[in-house]
Design a protein that fits this description.
34% of the residues lie in helices and 23% in strands. By secondary structure, the protein is α+β, with helices and mostly antiparallel strands. The strands form 9 sheets. The chain has a 6-stranded antiparallel β-barrel with strand order 7-8-14-13-10-15. Strands 2-1-5-6 form a 4-stranded parallel β-sheet, sandwiched between helices. A hairpin with a 5-residue loop joins strand 3 and strand 4. Helix 8 packs across helix 11, helix 9 crosses helix 11 and helix 23 packs across helix 24. The chain is globular and about 90 Å long.
Length: 889
């Protein structure tokens, strides 16, 4: 018997079926060990030795693998066909060698580019050894990311409170988003005018032509810069006679795009389906690992982490057969198409993302897929088959027209396109049964019959004013495209990089656009000021190229680490001399448009408008940065630093306190202000002044005297309880609006209820709360959102449920909360098992049915000290992490 190690238990089951009884396929569940998330896991002073940690869940899985290998004839390492997969195989083999279970048994590496029977059997028949240069590149990448993260992040914590982390690729991606925001802030809009004429042919057909020349000069785009010039040219066109000068019809061929790579799939899924990059990869992973189609589990697409654009020869042949069968011979080019990538630092070894069988048309397998799976598979199938189809044939017609007004001449142009043969475009449209498409379908505007030298009748002259617009903010798709163009990071990790930026609150997504938050802009400004080299695009891309050269065996990975660490460590040491004033001066300058927006009255935006003499500046507090006055404590003016900048606060009247009137009880002035945590009402001045934050949903511009009085007067006494004689009051707390009676709380439905609820309603709500808490029914288990099947260790079913604090995975008495942002409907059984094992290991929870297994899952982590070649086991640090997913940069 031979042992085969794969990453996913879903793949293990399918592959075992393909290989038969002579093989035992086991899953590693991704990485079996990782660098502990603490300082000292990479040791530059000891030639970059690396401490690896094995968590409790992975220890159990490695024991199962080791036990199987002991009695086996050989070992096949069949983890995923990418750098991370190669690294997982290396880790597994290193641990097995330390357990002394290999004992001369043959060990081979195989890769499955697709989970189909043919692909699996072909791969098993063509094994190889572990690719050592590829592992070296992985080690270098992990060491670099660790050294940057665990040395740069503490600098941020000391010098920039509120900042959470920095990373080798993460910080450069954030800089792209922040630099675009700075471009938008600096942008000055310019006026321009477009002129066009609606003309009629002698046959009565109308069309539009735009002005392209006047006064004997060609007009460049946006050349007409004001209304006066536009009016003069409009008058010329109004009184002109029109004649067709030339008509040129030119055939143009439009070629299909290559099949998807990881990044182009993420871009297309974002723009066409609205999927985030992480959602795209989750769905693609399931399509790759296999879907049950009529009782047979089959992988529907090839491996989805790739930057190669070429398909395997047998796949090209299959695509060409499918094209002939489904569309007709006319749609089949004479020769197969071959593509090469234009992306920087691309690795051509991997095949593009394509269907494993082009005969599986999306409509035929619709019933076996959920909505997201079907949408993504449809996208991949169409792109794959279109890549081998004939070019579209387009006729592009250009008409040049002369306008003459008493010797004053102008030129106009009309352009139209018609698709004469749709070619590959047919793959993206509804196919007819015979595979034919109309030859007269339009692409863009279509022109009527127009002949040279014929006169045209003027119908109308259009003159429209426009203003130039700033560059658009990045979407996930456009940021991924830019990172790929610059050679920053690897396509397989873009989704994780973007997720990190969102999780750190460095960016938010608004209408599918990435909006940098104040925290993210502060981090970027700090790094650009004091770590310029390490957030430069070229530097990051050059380092990525070195990692590629390591994987090609051209560079030694330790040499690359030494060169990097020497300069980086010196830069870290220099920051120890930085004073907070140095940091604030640099940030005030770098973020001036954000921190000090222009004022409508033209006054100096850096002068405090409250005291009139102090200078405004960024201040660093426990919870991050805010804007304050230099005359503190005499002047206690502060303002929140928002992602939209001070301009929004100023438009709301919050750059200075807004007087609302005197408090009816104390006589002190009520003011509306903006602080570090948002807008609030303040009564009086000084440290003893009472403050009340605006509730969620209340906008500063809607606050009047009555609302201010009501808010600052909270808590509100409603009346005494008729049974206890104790006061019932209402207020707004950390968890929303509430009622308070005798130390017990009851929730209110809305903020408005706080100010309007009467005594009878309050008594009823309190009674209902007491009934539920005491004599009423206890809350039962939350309803299952999704059934995942029985746990492989027994002990009952695994379910996904929705609880008070969000969705969670349940198995017996173990409840494991899903990570923030995880779609509960998308959770897989292997992800659930990892979460359960981590939770059991952390809490020591065990079910009655499997106490020994739960105890094993709760065991402490094991660390080993390794370099490129395995060394003796090192001191065992405590476990902190669960089974590791693939690392992100």
């Amino acid at each position: 018997m031979n042992v085969v190690v794969v990453e996913s238990p879903a793949k293990a089951k399918t592959i075992n079926k393909y290989l038969g009884p002579g093989y035992k396929v086991l899953a590693s569940f991704g990485h079996v060990r990782d660098l502990p998330a603490k300082d000292g896991s990479v040791l530059p002073d000891q030639d970059f030795e690396m401490l690896w940690e094995v968590d409790g869940a992975s220890q159990k899985r490695m024991k199962d693998i080791a036990d199987a290998v002991k009695s086996s004839d050989g070992l096949f390492l069949a983890t995923d066909p990418d750098r991370e997969g190669e690294a997982i195989s290396w880790h597994v083999l290193d641990l097995l060698n330390k357990k002394r279970v290999i004992n001369g048994k043959p060990v081979k590496r195989v890769v499955f580019n697709a989970i189909t029977k043919k692909a699996v059997l072909d791969a098993m028949a063509d094994p190889r050894d572990i690719d050592v240069p590829l592992v070296d590149a992985y080690l270098a990448r992990r060491a670099l990311d660790y050294l940057v993260g665990f040395n740069l992040s503490p600098v941020l914590w000391r010098k920039l409170p509120g900042a959470r982390s920095a990373g080798r690729v993460q910080s450069v991606a954030l800089r792209l988003v922040c630099d675009r925001e700075s471009e938008i802030e600096r942008f000055i809009s310019e006026e321009y005018w477009n002129l066009s004429a609606i003309l009629k042919t002698p046959r009565g057909d109308e069309f539009e032509a735009r002005l392209v020349s006047a006064d004997g000069k060609r007009l460049q785009p946006r050349a007409i810069g004001n209304g006066e010039e536009a009016g003069r040219l409009k008058a010329l066109l109004e009184g002109a006679a029109y004649v067709v000068d030339t008509v040129e019809a030119k055939p143009v061929k439009r070629n299909p795009s290559p099949p998807f790579t990881t990044s182009t799939l993420q871009q297309a899924a974002s723009s066409k389906l609205g999927f985030s990059a992480s959602r795209t990869m989750q769905v693609a992973q399931k399509l790759y690992e296999g879907v049950d189609i009529g009782g047979e589990t089959v992988g529907l697409i090839t491996y989805m982490r790739t930057d190669g654009v070429q398909m395997a020869p047998e796949a090209i042949d299959a695509a060409r057969r499918a094209i002939a069968n489904q569309f007709g011979d006319r749609y089949l080019p004479e020769k197969a198409r071959f593509y090469s990538t234009k992306a920087k630092n691309a690795q051509e070894a991997h095949e593009a993302i394509r269907p494993t069988d082009f005969d599986r048309v999306p409509d035929r397998i619709r019933k076996f897929l959920d909505d997201d799976q079907l949408k993504l598979y449809d996208l991949i199938w169409k792109r794959g088959i279109a890549s081998q189809m004939a070019s579209a044939e387009i006729e592009r017609t250009t008409v040049e027209i002369l306008a003459d007004n008493a010797g004053k001449k102008a030129g106009l142009r009309a352009v139209g396109s018609v698709i004469r043969f749709d070619g590959f475009i047919a793959a993206y449209t509804d196919q007819k049964e015979d595979g034919e498409q109309s030859d007269d379908s339009e692409e863009g505007g279509r022109l009527p019959e127009i002949n040279a030298r014929e006169n045209l009748a003027k119908q109308k002259i259009n003159s429209t004013q426009h203003f130039t617009e700033p560059p658009p903010r990045y979407s996930e798709a456009s940021l991924i495209k830019k990172m790929e163009e610059l050679g920053i990071g690897r396509p397989s990790t873009y989704a994780a990089t973007l997720a990190t930026l969102r999780d750190r609150d460095y960016v938010t997504i608004d209408k599918r656009k990435l909006l940098p938050q104040a925290k993210g802009r502060l981090v970027t400004a700090f790094l650009e000021s004091f770590f310029t080299k390490y957030v430069e695009y070229d530097f990051t891309a050059d380092l990525e190229e070195k990692l590629d050269r390591i994987s090609a065996g051209e560079l030694n990975w330790k040499d690359v680490l030494r060169d990097f660490w020497r300069d980086f460590f010196a830069q870290i040491e220099d920051t120890k001399e930085l004073r907070v004033t140095n940091v604030l001066d640099a940030l005030n300058e770098a973020l001036a448009p954000l921190v000090f927006p222009k004022r409508e009255d033209g006054s100096d935006p850096r002068i405090c408008q409250v005291c009139g003499t102090g200078n405004l500046s960024l201040k660093l507090g426990k919870y991050g940065a805010f804007i304050g006055c230099s005359n503190y404590p005499e002047c206690n003016y502060t303002r929140q630093l928002s992602s939209e900048g001070g301009a929004e606060a100023e438009s709301n009247g919050l750059n200075e306190p807004k007087a609302l009137g005197a408090d009816p009880v104390t006589g002190e002035e009520l003011t509306l202000r903006s602080g570090r945590f948002g807008p609030y009402i303040q009564r009086g001045e000084g440290k003893e002044a009472k403050r009340a934050s605006l509730p969620r949903g209340w906008k500063p511009e809607d606050i009047d005297y009555e609302k201010a009085v009501a808010l600052i007067s909270l808590p509100r006494d409603i009346g005494k309880h008729p049974e206890t004689g104790k006061m019932i009051s209402s207020g707004i707390g950390r968890y929303g609006p509430f009622l308070l009676h005798d130390g017990s709380y009851a929730n209110l439905e809305s903020v408005e209820d706080v100010f309007t609820v009467g005594l009878n309603r309050a008594v009823t709500l309190i009674a209902e709360k007491q009934s539920k808490a005491a004599g009423g029914k206890t809350r039962g288990a939350a309803a299952a959102l999704k059934e995942l099947g029985e746990h492989p260790d027994g002990g009952g079913a695994i379910t996904v449920r929705d609880g008070k604090y969000g969705p969670y995975v349940n198995w017996g008495k173990v409840n494991a909360t899903l990570p923030k942002g995880t779609d509960p409907q998308a959770i897989t059984v292997e992800e659930a098992l990892t979460l359960i094992a981590a939770k059991a290991g952390k809490s020591g929870t065990a079910t009655k049915k499997a106490p020994a297994k739960a105890k094993a899952a709760a065991a402490g982590a094991k660390a080993t000290k390794t370099t490129a070649k395995p060394k003796a086991a090192a001191k065992k640090p405590a476990a902190k992490t669960a089974a590791k997913k693939k690392s992100a940069e």
